[in-house]
Amino acid sequence: MLKRIGPKLILLVGATAITIVGLFAYLSLEAMRTGMLGEVERHANQLSETVRASTRYAMLLNERDHIRQIVRSISQQQDIGKVRILNKLGEIIYSSVETDVGMMVDKDAEACYSCHSADRPLERLPIKERTRVFQVHPDSSRYLGIITPINNEQSCWSAPCHAHPRERTVLGVLDVALPLSDADRTLAKIRLELVLSALASFFGISLIIGLFVRRWVDRPVKELVHATQAVADGNLSYTIKERHNDELGVLAGSFNNMTRRLADARMQLFQSDKLASLGRLAAGVAHEINNPLTGVLTYSSFLMRRTQDRPEIQDDLKVIVRETIRCREIVKSLLDFARQSVPKKVEASVNEIIDRAVHVAKNQLTVHSIQLVKETANELPKVTVDANQIQQVFLNLIVNAVDAIGPRGGTITISSALLHLSPRGITQVRKAQCGKRHSLIDEEVRIGGLPSIGVRAVFGSTEGTVHLDPVYGRHSHQYGLTVPVGSEVQFSCTECQTSLIDPSLQCPLCSAQLCVIDTPGQGLLEVCSRRGCDYEHWETVDNGGLREYVEIKVSDTGSGISADDLPRIFEPFYTTKGQKGTGLGLSVIWGIIDNHNGAISVASELGQGTTFTIRIPVRQPR
Amino acid sequence: MGSELDILVIDDEQVVLDAVEHICSAEGLQVKTAQDGPSALQALDQHRFRLVLCDIMMPEVDGFQVLSEVQRRFPQTPVIMSTGFSTVENAVKSLSAGAIDFVPKPFTADELLSTITRGLRYRGLLKTTGGRSVASDDSRGFTVPCPARYSRLGYMSWTVMESDGSALIGVSHAFARTIEGISSIETVAEQEEIVQGIQCAQIHTTAELTHSVLSPLSGKIIERNLRLEKDPHIVEKDPYFAGWLYRIIPSDPDYELSQLTPCGSDAV
């Protein structure tokens, strides 16, 4: 239970709240008790003075009945417990309780103690010491008693009656007791209220915190945990709803970003992997098919050679030879593709290639009553591409669109446009070296399918290799040693261990040292040495300004691709066409575009249609 | 050692052996076939051959091993390599290792006969140099070696980098001498790309044969030798200078030149 944040927080804040409220309650209760006691005391004192004053004259006249009458009538008032007058000897002379009259009070008793503890009785005492709080028996309510001495005065010793001797100071005492039951009741009530409010505030605070934690901490954390588990299980398309903009919201956002990038990287890896296995397969197939094709081609061509005098056979043989040579070219192109051969790039106009592809597909479009809309931009710069391969790409996309539209007809839109994109995130570091001109490019470790920049990294007492992302500004570095995010790492050449850190430079974002890598012909690439800092600066490339791309979009109003199929359509052998397709088309397209340093993406909605977007750089990187 | 036969064909695919034997026999050539490396080497022990046609991808002993074995033991016997897995690497490796030609499968009867004719003529030229041991350069005793600074792709073609960054491409003298009676040279158009180890020109002969020239370098053609259209024989007379084929802008000269044999080392 206490392993979770919520209960912990509730317990902590609740305990704090109850301590503070409890202390406050105690102090205020104390103050109130003192105040109320004081009030009763004052009242008792006043009452005593009243009794003394009102009995004075009767005493002087020694009218005992009158005095008794006064005592009784005063004590009959509400909230007055007992009124007694004692003489010097401790005998009760007058009392509101008749039966007490004549009884002796022990001088050592509580009421007398404050004066009579010393040998000689004190004659004057401050009010505080004349009061006492007592209970007649344990179950009864409390009383506040106050003793007021009746001092001797001239009129007493000069009175004609039983004149007291002059040398006496105190003639007797007046003892008034007031019940504290009312005050006690009020106090008990207030105490109960305070305890209740303390408990209420404890539960209220706990509830609010509980709700807060549940709403803003528990649920997002639970979601995050769930998401990490989902990602660990391989579901990289899992995204968390970014509901809040607090720290957890930011965390969720960066988590989503991370999984997106992971998914991208995995997709790239997957593609390269699939293409590699496709390559092996194609190589095997090519080898196997070429042998029987050799049989067909050699025999048929030989037959053609030997029957030159028989034109009626010649024509037929020519077809066999021609078609076999066509097979040879197909296998060759498959092999070329599988080897990811360098395309035969020449300067070409994208719009012309589109026209050619459309021309080839014209028949299919008419048969399926599909309208083709061309929205090609005028004055596009020429691009350096393998025109045949790019034409194959467009043709393939058009044929796919025709299939998606089906027999009911629809529209295919092909557009082209010129784009200017930042070099960040797209420019690849192809050559990198240390100060002593050792190459840092690591063909073995690839990031996103591209050879990485391998550098030796030292962090504390550990050292290892860090593979920097070769794509400028993408930051998908791979750390071969444990480095906590936010720590600086010392980078050096893997071969000669020459430091790559330039101590004279500082990261403008986090002030860490900068790692400087020489990219021959393209100046210096600066990378922040702090893990987690995204600073990269490649002056030469940045100065080159925005990169020009020709963007071609092929949209159809066809059946669309489901969200489940969408991430997989560029995988080799993945087909939704059943027996109709080989599943190779789009992966071949992907390979071709990749070979042209371009990018292809797809957006689709079921029932609405699909749009393929291709970007080809106007200038191929050198 | 038994009698001298014309051709030893090595291939693990029976239909290829049959086809080659069929075509060559019709031309009056004596053919022996072997289905794998070991039996080929056995056949080489039993007979002398004027020419060896060898597949590359074979189980156990592959074509390159057969090639080096033939080079070592029978330096006077030219070898033509062939494969169904025709990659640039295989082509360059074959020619660099001493094969006189590389024929990608599947081939036509004409392509087969063209390369075999050239191979046999090569053998004839080698023989005329008598018992002289084969030179380490590309002259092989009967041709002019390529000049220093040039690089060559086997005994087939050469390239030389010019100071302006372009490269000239041409055929070697050994190649030119094995072609009898050039009638025309079919070249690739300017602005087109050619690829190292892939055919870049075809030389047609009066005997109606067609010989493929494999390019020593990849790049974009910026100039063709127009003199060859009028007088293709310049290739035979002056293959290293006046008989050049193309001027190209090489696409990856650093790597590709390292795959070639520098001619300068031959002269020493």
Overall mean pLDDT score of chain A?
81
- Cα end-to-end separation of chain A: 62 Å
What best-fitting shape of chain A do the alpha-carbon axes yield?
Answer: rod-shaped
- Helix-strand category of chain A: alpha+beta
Helix content of chain A: 40-55%
What's the short version?
By secondary structure, chain A is α+β, with helices and mostly antiparallel strands. Chain A has helices at 5-60, 64-75, 110-116, 127-130, 154-158, 181-232, 247-306, 311-338, 350-367, 387-405, 539-543, 585-595; strands at residues 82-87, 92-95, 131-135, 142-151, 170-179, 346-348, 370-376, 383-385, 410-421, 441-447, 450-459, 462-468, 478-479, 490-492, 501-506, 513-518, 524-528, 536-538, 547-556, 599-605, 609-617. In chain A, β11 and β12 form a beta hairpin.
Describe the 3D structure:
The complex is a heterodimer of chains A (622) and B (268). By secondary structure, chain A is of the alpha+beta class. In chain A, 45% of the residues lie in helices and 22% in strands. Chain A has 12 helices and 21 strands. Chain A has helices spanning 5-60, 64-75, 110-116, 127-130, 154-158, 181-232, 247-306, 311-338, 350-367, 387-405, 539-543, 585-595; strands at 82-87, 92-95, 131-135, 142-151, 170-179, 346-348, 370-376, 383-385, 410-421, 441-447, 450-459, 462-468, 478-479, 490-492, 501-506, 513-518, 524-528, 536-538, 547-556, 599-605, 609-617. In chain A, the strands form 5 sheets. Chain A has a 5-stranded antiparallel sheet. A 5-stranded mixed sheet of chain A has the order 7-9-19-21-20, covered by helices on one side. In chain A, helix 6 runs parallel beside helix 7, helix 9 (350-367) runs parallel beside helix 10 (387-405) and helix 10 (387-405) runs antiparallel to helix 12 (585-595). The longest helix of chain A has 60 residues, at 247-306. Chain B has 268 residues and is an alpha/beta fold. Chain B contains 10 helices and 15 strands. In chain B, helix 2 packs parallel to helix 3 (63-73). Residues 131-135 of chain B have low confidence and may be disordered. Chains A and B meet through helix 7 and helix 8 of A and helix 1 and helix 5 of B.
